[in-house]
Amino acid sequence: MRASPIPSSARAERLALETDRAQAVVNAQKPEELLKLPSVAGHPIVAPLLADLVDKESNLVVLRQQYKSKHPRYITAVAEIEGLKRSLYQKAIEASERISTSCSIAREHELELSKSVDDLEKQLTKRNQDMAKYNVMKRENDADHALYESMQARAKEIDVTKGIDGSWIKIVDSAIASGVPVRPQRSKMIAMGTFFGFAIGIIGAIGFNQLRRQLRTVGQVEKLTGLPVLGALVKRKAAKGETPRNFLLHPQGIDRESFRALQAAISTRIQAENSRTMMVTSAIPGEGKTYVSINLAIAFAQSQKKTLLIDADMRKKTCSRILSDDANRFGLAELLESQMRLEDIVRPTEIPNLYILTAGANPRNPVEWFTAASLKTVLENTLKDFDQIIIDTPPVLAVSDSLLMATEIQTVCYVIGSGKIRYRAVERACKMLADAQRAPLGIVLNFMEKQWGDDEYYYGEYYYGKDGYGVPPTES
């Protein structure tokens, strides 16, 4: 609601008086300062004297031009002005003392005006509410009146048509039944069925062809690559509430036996070649190479070999996050640039005989500073203290790091995710490794579904039951 100008002016008047009263208290014995206050200068006992003083001072200016200072008329005018000033100053002091009374009167006047304005506003609000109710009732009345007139007009129409006999409906032509059925349209249904049958068949053939292009079984892998499958790992899902760290570090049952068998198969081959450095890689991300690297290193450590796991995937650093408290601590990157010593950055893990060399904290692109010669020096130093070196490297087709590392590593273990990669990607990755003079030692088939498992590679309840080795009880 907009503020009324009447209380605002009264409030301004009261505030001006209060301001003058405060100034009057400060300048109580200074008549010249008191006369500067509007409430004092405009007071009825001061204003006439002040106007008279202005006139006499104007006359004195005229006399000063006509007479000298010792002329009787000039002296008389000066005396009158001085007397008038004394009276004016006395009245100014009296007027300043009356300002408090004027403030009280102004405050009461303001309160009365505010009360009057509030009463008027309440009356205006009530009037507006009554007007709104009136408008609603008027609209309802107009609607009822219009409905009444409409019903009255309809009643008159009914009265007019009461006396008319007969129907307004006339038969123009009689309906004739068709000799051909309208529905179902057999020819149209046969055509549509044929079309959709061909479409579904083509889509199914394309889908089946796409499935065939993905490697899923041990036989497919060995036929395509010409390399032996060292082990097949069944696809496993994390239990409810199981953390990623526990899922990777503590495989149970069939998974633990699978990695032991994989470690035994690899050990048999690398012992003949006296190979102690091995890199684990894949063609594309998501095939489980880090999962294989960690658990293969654990299997070597549990076979009483002092094992070092090197996280060479410097972009993802998954091994570092799983096995180390700080994934960005100094590691392989700083070691390759000769910024740190090996014994200062290699850390033991919770697994006996297993140590971790993290990827490092260097944020630059590894291609900018990585060299095969620096990696060769690092591997020569690590082999003095460890029996087996497992290196988790990036995917071959994603970046070129793995191909540079492969030239200085003795053995390559290639991981393929069952159902996750196509033939051409595997062929290209194997060719690139072969061009780097490091053909894979063998293949680890990961994420294999039970229905795709070959008999000789199938680790299931038949070979490893819930309570140990043996055949599970048959269902009745």
Structure, explained:
The protein folds into 2 domains: 5-105, no CATH class; 215-457, P-loop containing nucleotide triphosphate hydrolases (Rossmann fold, 3-Layer(aba) Sandwich), CATH 3.40.50. The longest helix is centred in the first third of the chain and has 63 residues, at 99-161. The chain is α/β, with parallel strands linked by helices and 476 residues long. 55% of the residues lie in helices and 9% in strands. Helix 1 packs antiparallel against helix 6 (99-161) and helix 4 packs antiparallel against helix 5 (72-97). It has helices spanning 5-26, 31-34, 38-41, 47-66, 72-97, 99-161, 186-212, 218-225, 244-249, 254-273, 289-302, 318-323, 332-336, 342-345, 366-369, 372-382, 401-406, 423-435, and strands at residues 229-234, 277-282, 307-311, 347-348, 354-357, 388-392, 411-417, 442-448. Strand 4 (347-348) and strand 5 (354-357) form a beta hairpin. Mean pLDDT is 79; it is low at 454-476. It is built from 18 helices and 8 strands. An 8-stranded mixed sheet has the order 1-8-7-2-6-3-5-4, with helices on both faces.
Overall pLDDT level: 79
Order of secondary-structure elements:
HHHHHHHHEHHEHEHHHEEHHEHEHE
Which overall shape is indicated by the principal axes computed on the Cα atoms? flat
In the CATH hierarchy, the architecture of the largest domain is: 3-Layer(aba) Sandwich
- As a whole number of angstroms, the C-alpha radius of gyration is 53 Å
Strand content: 5-15%
Output the CATH topology of the largest domain: Rossmann fold
Number of strands: 8
Top CATH class of the largest domain: Alpha Beta
According to CATH, the homologous superfamily of the largest domain is P-loop containing nucleotide triphosphate hydrolases
How far the N terminus sits from the C terminus, by CA atoms, comes to 87 Å
Portion in helices: 55-70%
Largest sheet: 8 strands, mixed
Secondary-structure-based class equals alpha/beta
Identify the strand order in the major beta sheet: 1-8-7-2-6-3-5-4
Domain tally: 2
DSSP helical segment count? 18
Low-confidence stretches at least 5 residues in length (pLDDT < 50)?
Answer: 454-476
